[in-house]
């Protein structure tokens, strides 16, 4: 809850700074993009360029984030499977029983290691 409130405050502060930056930079110039030509203030042009760069960077990193999230899901699933196998191996009346694939065929004792 506190994290969301802090995020909202920071976002509002950044919006206020952007409005102030745009208001203080009133120089106008022409922008010619392909078939469109229009006049824009320098503050607004810089903010739009910053926002476009931010969105392009987020789009470029979205695949990396998706791969991280998929890996996290695979790791969680592997952890759950390992926990189930461990709990089944530690309890003799588990669902796999003594002849299940998770239990060893011949239990080894520490003296067998010599």
Structure description:
The chain is mainly alpha-helical and 114 residues long. It has one domain. 63% of the residues lie in helices and 11% in strands. The protein is built from 2 helices and 2 strands; from the N terminus they run H-E-E-H. A two-stranded antiparallel sheet has the order 1-2. Strand 1 and strand 2 form a beta hairpin. The longest helix has 49 residues. The radius of gyration is 30 Å and the shape is elongated. The two termini are 58 Å apart. The mean pLDDT is 82.
Characteristic key phrases:
single chain; 114 residues; mainly alpha; two-stranded antiparallel sheet; 2 helices; 2 strands
Beta content comes to: 5-15%
CA distance, first residue to last residue: 58 Å
Outline type: elongated
Q: How many strands, which pairing sense, and closed or not: the largest β-sheet?
A: 2 strands, antiparallel
Order of helices and strands: HEEH
- Enumerate the spans where pLDDT stays under 50 for 5 or more consecutive residues: none
Evaluate the radius of gyration: 30 Å
Biggest sheet strand order reads 1-2
Number of domains: 1
Number of helices: 2
Helix content: 55-70%
Topology (elements, then pairings):
Elements: H1 2-24, E1 28-33, E2 36-41, H2 42-90
Antiparallel strand pairs: 1-2
Helix pairs in contact: 1-2
The gist of it:
With 114 residues, this protein is mainly alpha-helical. It has one domain.
């Amino acid at each position: 809850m506190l994290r969301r409130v802090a995020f909202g405050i920071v976002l509002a502060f950044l919006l206020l700074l952007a409005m102030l930056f745009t208001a203080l930079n009133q120089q106008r110039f022409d922008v010619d993009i392909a078939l469109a030509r229009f006049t824009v203030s320098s503050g607004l042009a810089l903010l739009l360029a910053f926002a476009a760069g931010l969105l392009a960077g987020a789009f470029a990193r979205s695949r990396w984030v998706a791969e991280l999230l998929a890996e996290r899901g695979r790791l969680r699933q592997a952890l759950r499977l390992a926990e189930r196998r461990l709990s089944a191996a530690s309890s003799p009346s588990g669902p796999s029983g003594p002849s299940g694939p998770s239990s060893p065929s011949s239990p080894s004792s520490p003296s067998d290691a010599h």
